[in-house]
Amino acid sequence: MSKQGKTVTVTQIASPQRRPAAQRATLVGLGLNKINRKSTLPDTPAVRGMIAKVQHLVRVDG
Q: Is the pTM of this model over 0.90?
């Protein structure tokens, strides 16, 4: 493991339209706002929780 720690890459695969505002805000918190955008984030419990809230809108790449 490197000094920077583990990371996880998430890709948005669905639109947040017609979804609750909390789910849209979670996508923004993950750094996503358009379909096929990717964001690399630290692999922490907080990020994993955010991904779980919008698991139907994102794909975890690694």
A: no
